[in-house]
Amino acid sequence: MITAEPVPGAADALVWQCLGQRPCNLTAPELARFFHPGRPQELRLALVERLGMHNKRGLQPCLALIDRYGPLPELLMALGMTHQPSARDALLRYLDDPGIDRLVLLRSLAGWGRQVPLPVIQEALQHPGQAMRLAGMDLLQFHARLLTAQQLLHLAEPLLEDIRPPVAIAAIRLLQRRNEPLLVGRLAQVLQEDSPEPVWEAALRALGSIGTTTSITLLLECWLARRGMPKAVELFHQLGAQFRHQHLLRQRLRHLLQEDKVTAEEVTPLLAGLGGAPEDVSGSQPERA
């Protein structure tokens, strides 16, 4: 076993060698002794990752390193990886420290989002940075079921309007877990907007996965508005996948045919997928030869 040096040096290669052994038999205290802020960043990250994976055994060595070197980002990350209540409490205390790397702190708290105050999450969601917004969204998932539809939409709205697809898609995936008409309607609005392609497709899948009468009605309205456009085909396919509400969909198509808003020719492929036929919807019988 090599002896940890008080400062980094030639032993870096030997530490890498120990970390690369399978299995790696370094204990949590040994990993902590090898850690030093002067070592290469990649090596520091590898050490603290292994330290955090020791869970309860890694907690005290990690706290000792923070006492010695301060709340370095990699040490905060290791603290979160231990998944210990004491680690959570220590991380929560840093929320009031303006000198802490905020992004790393929120990511380290990702497993305890319910304990993170909602104003802290809202601050992250309103931050202009993509990584910070996504970290806030990860934490918001723990609060989502406790919020009203209006409260949730208020928090998610800035992300839905974000031009960066990963941010908007994260908000869409959160909203699709709820089926209130307000949230379903906002997803349908994304389909009516000139959204980036990945965002539009995510909203389409989200609306299709909800499977309520409201979501099907809105899908049908979006298809009617997009007829003749390339995206109408994708909407049409999503309507055809609504197997749980075939009767409702046929009923809506019947009304549209009666109001001359669609033609039997337009809905024939959809009816075929639903196990019906145009004459079943229109109520008329086909002419006999």
UniProtKB/TrEMBL annotation:
<keyword id="KW-0605">Phycobilisome</keyword>
<dbReference type="InterPro" id="IPR011989">
    <property type="entry name" value="ARM-like"/>
</dbReference>
<dbReference type="InterPro" id="IPR016024">
    <property type="entry name" value="ARM-type_fold"/>
</dbReference>
<dbReference type="GO" id="GO:0030089">
    <property type="term" value="C:phycobilisome"/>
</dbReference>
<dbReference type="Pfam" id="PF13646">
    <property type="entry name" value="HEAT_2"/>
</dbReference>
<protein>
    <recommendedName>
        <fullName>HEAT repeat domain-containing protein</fullName>
    </recommendedName>
</protein>
<keyword id="KW-0042">Antenna complex</keyword>
